[in-house]
Amino acid sequence: MTTLLIVLALALVLALLWTAGVPRPKPAARGTGINPPARWREDAADSLAVATYNIHGGKGLDGKRDLDRTAQMIAGADVAALQEVRAASRFGGSCQAEVIARAHDKGWLFAPTQTRWMRDFRGNALITAFPVQEWHREPLVNVAGHRYRNLTTARVRIGHRDLWVLFTHLHTRAGRDTQLRAVLERFAQYQPAILLGDLNTTRADPQLASVLQHGAVDAVRQVLGDQDRDDRVDWIITKGVVVDTGGMHDVGVSDHPYFWATVRFQ
To answer: Do 16 and 128 contact (CB within 8 A), yes or no?
Structure first.
């Protein structure tokens, strides 16, 4: 009997461990304000720099995980969306978004896409020098295993005006078209607005092509011109603002390039 109880107890422990390790989608959430810096920028800002960066968990092509390099890459951005961001470890430390934001005394919002081992696991983040008035995180339809995705919409206060910033990271597999449709439908509801993220989708996608033909601007293509690549999957899409300058840094610090653009209100 004792042996049987031990076997049953071990089986129960193993079952609980397996259950805890299964990724689960993070539910929708909303809030007002985000983790603040020592001081927000409150000026009207004639222009601001926006950026998108898939940071690959802070791991460069040299195999080293170095968040100092990641933080330096986005140093000039007033508003930056990050993808493949890791949550704080169970054994201590801080969320990667917090580490990167604190390096330049900016605010941060971590938008986890999934939980694992009974804690936030990974997701996207917004790093900003300007205050956020409200935000809404919503899960996207998932049909491809445990690789959950979400979309977060934030109302960023620039002086006395609002800029809606949407950021996401879409799937590479089945269901991406459905996720992209949901993101673009949400983007259509706001003005002025900027969509930032790794869409895992190129300019050849008919949904993106339609949006760009009806008033939205591919800021990366506009600032890079002939230096832009047709297979690019990282996007800065704007409407209701003017795109002035911008640029990119190639892969190295991450397995994705870093893209940025300066914009101003119309």
So the answer is: no
Helix (H) or strand (E) holding 73, with range, is helix 67-73
Q: Is residue 45 part of a domain?
A: yes
Per-residue pLDDT reduced to its tens digit, 198-241: 999 999 999 999 999 999 999 999 999 999 999 999 999 999 99
Domain that holds residue 186: 24-265
Is the whole-model pTM more than 0.85?
A: yes
Alpha helices in the chain (DSSP H): 2-21, 67-73, 96-102, 176-187, 206-212, 219-224
What single-letter amino acid sits at 109? L
| pLDDT tens string 57-100 | 999 999 999 999 999 999 999 999 999 999 987 666 789 999 99
Residue 5 belongs to a domain:
no
Q: Say how many domains are in the chain.
A: 1
The CATH number that applies at residue 259 is: 3.60.10.10
| In contact, 240 and 213? CB cutoff 8 Å | no
The tokens for 229 are: 């690549």
In a domain, residue 213? The reply is: yes
Q: End-to-end distance of the chain based on CA atoms, in angstroms?
A: 78
| Residue 84 CB neighbours (<10 A) | 22
